[in-house]
Batch of 2 targets.
Target 1
Amino acid sequence: MTTQQAADTRLDTLAPPRRALLLAVENRRGEATLALAELARLVAAAGMVPAATLTQVRERPHPATYVGKGKLREVKGFLVAEDLDVVVCNHELSPRQVVALSDQLERQVMDRSEVILEICARH
């Protein structure tokens, strides 16, 4: 480990953990509950705090923004009100969805796969 890597590691441990909003789309009420519980454990293992959860009931994720326009406004307001740092979506996101969500929400956006990769990188 180089001196710079050691310094970066120390800084990482001093920074407060990022607070995450878990976001899911479900086609029937209650279906996402188990998946979100697992996602919360993954987020915690990645060094973040799973601070809140929001879901939207719709047949399938919106192709451009994952959630609909109204839910997107709600999520943005919630992020600001609760001072959350990152949005973690329960489904795999397309690059288009990541860019659209990041631009609209002005926060880092991750999907389940990216959280798992972050866990692996930490170990």
Target 2
Amino acid sequence: MMKTKSKSAEADPLLAPIAAAFADDPDVALGRLFSSTGLNVGGKIFAMIVKGSLVVKLPAAAVDAIVAAGEGARFDPGHG
């Protein structure tokens, strides 16, 4: 069963389908990450909700293809 760090993370309907897919993975934790609800493995974020949008960590080539197809955008954490 997935480790849960925050009850508020469980309540996020945008992340629920992805969290459900990893529910039986003991290495995946669900909780608050950078003021957002997200999933991580070993403390490394791989999916989170930021300002109502799903952000996922993908290989650079996959991101390039998604952006080129107009199906997504690069994540800007706002660090400058």
